[in-house]
Amino acid sequence: MERTLFGEEHRIFRDAFSKFLQTEAVPNYDRWESQGKVDREFWTLAGRNGFLCPWASEKYGGSEADFLYSVIMAEEVARHRVIGFMLELHNDIVGPYIDRISNDEQKERWMPRIINGDAVLAIAMTEPGIGSNLAGVRTTAVLDGDEWVLNGQKTFISNGQICDLVVVVARTDPNAEPAHRGLSLFVVEGDAPGFRRGLNLKKMGRKASDTSELFFEDCRIPAGNLLGEAGKGFYYLMDNLQQERLVIAVASQVEAEWTLGETLAYVKEREVFGKPLSTYQNTQFKLAECATQIELGRVFIDRLIADHMAGKNLSKEISMAKWWITDMNFRVVHECLQLFGGYGYMEEYPICRAFRDFRVESIFAGSNEIMKHIIAKQMGLSS
Questions:
Q1: What mean pLDDT, rounded, does the chain reach?
Q2: How far is it, in rounded angstroms, from Cα 364 to Cα 132?
C-alpha cells in the first residue's frame, strides 16, 4: 500500500537516520546484547546528529520537527532491530513530560542536555507487586524544607542503568481519595544522594536494552525538581499514554512487515523434497494470512498517526491498535519462524532474535488486557 504521510524532507531524514543506525548501531549490537546495555557514546553521537527529541524547541537545540520524524525513527529502529525501545523512550515518552510540564527554569536546566545526548532519560512507574495499577504506587515523597525526600523501590525500568535523569512517580498525599490524586512526578538526577541502581535484570529478549531495579532510600532532591503540580502526576501520565502506545504500535507494525519480508526471501530459496518451500500450499496460505493482517494493521496505524497529529483524543482507538498490532506481530513471527524450521531456532538467524524480542510488546505500556479494559470502558461496558 502506498503511504501518503511523508514528504521529501521526511524521506531525506529517514535515509540519514537509517545510515546512522547502520553505521553506529548494527555493527555493535551483538556486543551490546552481551554486555546488557548500549554504549554511552551512542547517545552522544545521536545527539550530535540531531536524533534526540527533534520536536523540541530550537531555543534548547531542537529542530521543532513534526511527529512524523518520531514515527520515522521508531520505524527505522524496528526495521534494523537494534537498541530495543530505548530511543523512543527518551524521545517520545519521557522527553515530552519534561518539555510540556516543566517550568522555564527546569527547561533551561534539562532540555539542552536531553537534546545533545548528555542526559539519557528514564521513567520510573512500575513497582514490585503493583504492575499496571498506578494508583497503588507505594514510593513516597515528603517535603522537608527546600528538599523532597523519596523512599521506595521501582522495577522493570528501561534505561535504568545508564540514565542521567529519571522521572519518578511518587505518592505525596497518602490520604488522597481516590488514591491516584495523591501522585506527583519528580525528576531525580543520577547522582542524587540516596538514589541507587540495583540489578540490570536478565530478560528473555531486548537484551541490549538495560532494564533495572531502582532504589530510593531517603533520596534527597531539590524542591525545584517537582515536575508540574503536586497531586497531578496521574493526570500527566494519562495525557502522554496516547503517544506512548501509538509509538509502540508503530514499531510493532514495522517489525511484522520486516518478518514477512525476511520469510518471503527464505521460502523462495529453501528447498524441501526437491522443491522451493514457497511452492507448497501450506506456505502460501500461511504467508497470505500474515500479509493480510499486516496490510490491515498498516491502514489502521497510518490513520491513527494522522489523527494523533491533528490533536484528536484517540484513547479507545490507540488502545485497539496497541493490543491488536502487538498481538498480530507476535502471531506473524510465530508462523514465520515455523517456516524456517530448525534454522529459525538458531541465534544466527535474525528471526530467532525477533521472536524473543517481539514478545514483550503485548506487556509493556499497559498490558493488552488493560487495553481491552480501556476499550470496554469506552464502550460503556465497564464501571
A1: 95
A2: 9
Please, is 323 exposed, middle or buried when counting C-beta atoms within 10 Å of its C-beta (0-12, 13-18, 19+)? buried
**Cα 315 to Cα 75, 229, 238, 377, distances in angstroms:** 22, 24, 10, 11
pLDDT, tens only, 291-336? 999 999 999 999 999 999 999 999 999 999 999 999 999 999 999 9
Residue-wise pLDDT tens digits, 107-119? 999 999 999 999 9
Q: What's the whole-number mean pLDDT along residues 9-17?
A: 97
The angle formed by the CA atoms of residues 272, 275 and 280, to the nearest 5 degrees, is 80
Closest CA to 5 of 321, 358, 302: 302
Establish how many alpha carbons lie within 13 A of residue 236's alpha carbon, considering only the half-sphere containing its beta carbon.
Answer: 29
Question: Which structural domain, as residue segments, surrounds residue 27?
Answer: 8-119
Closest to 83 in 3D by CA, of 125, 128, 58, 52: 52
Question: Would you say residue 180 lies in a domain?
Answer: yes
Q: What is the pLDDT of residue 250?
A: 97
Spatial separation of the C-alpha atoms in residues 335 and 310, rounded to whole Å: 36
Kindly report, residue by residue over 73-85, the tens digit of the pLDDT. Answer: 999 999 998 877 8
Task: Give the residue numbers annotated as catalytic, written as ranges.
Answer: 244
Q: Is residue 207 part of a domain?
A: yes
To the nearest 10 degrees (0 to 180), the angle between helices 368-378 and 315-340 is 140
Q: Are 263 and 351 members of one domain?
A: yes
Let me know if residue 181 belongs to a domain: yes
> Do 369 and 348 belong to one domain?
yes
Give which of 133, 145, 237 is closest to 184, Cα–Cα. Answer: 237
